[in-house]
Specification:
With 174 residues, the chain is of the alpha+beta class. The chain contains 5 helices and 4 strands, in the order ββββααααα. Helix 4 crosses helix 5.
């Protein structure tokens, strides 16, 4: 949830995950759990403030066989993600409340608490609404809201939180 990978090659850094000050500070730091040293002198740091994360090295060809990746839902910004795809994925959980369904990564990839709330607000859907009670019109609005929220959040550099920074050390402004 607050973990990250930081690749460092001399003065060049690249980070991925949920960045925090470790992305721009001296590494390793107090949140560094694993450091991988490469023959060329570059390093990969796995940082995890909350100690929830884990590392598993597998050949690239094996990634599709990992249970998590077999179960993960569609990426909401892919062109193939239509409102009908969203409807089909949601209907697998008819008795769930819509917010819980959006947070389920097997339904839809990448929607966390903030973006679920913002998307539901944009679509004017109460978070406790049961999936079975959503009309096609509401699902269309939700589909549009999800994509709008995600695009805007990318444009704004993500959500600002007490420990979030972008690759240059700036807080997000979404």
């Amino acid at each position: 949830m607050t973990g990250q990978l930081v690749f460092k090659d001399g003065s060049t850094r690249f980070g991925a995950g949920h960045p925090n000050d470790s992305l721009v500070g001296k590494l390793p730091d107090r949140s560094t759990r694993v450091t991988i040293d490469f023959k060329d002198g570059s390093k990969l740091f796995f940082n995890d403030q909350r100690k929830f994360g884990w590392v598993r090295l597998v050949p690239t060809s094996e990634v599709p066989n990992i249970d998590f990746f077999k179960k993960i839902g569609p990426e909401p910004l892919e062109p193939s993600f239509t409102w009908k795809v969203l409807a089909e994925r949601l209907k697998r959980r008819p008795n769930s409340i819509i917010k819980a369904a959006l947070l389920d990564q097997s339904v839809l990839a990448g929607i966390g608490n903030i973006y679920a709330d913002e998307s539901l607000w944009g679509a004017k859907i109460h978070p406790a609404t049961r999936v079975r009670d959503l009309s096609d019109a509401k699902i269309k609005k939700l589909h549009n809201a999800i994509q709008t929220v995600l695009r805007l959040s990318i444009e704004k550099g993500g959500s600002t939180d007490k420990n979030y920074v972008d690759a240059e050390g700036n807080k997000g402004s979404y």
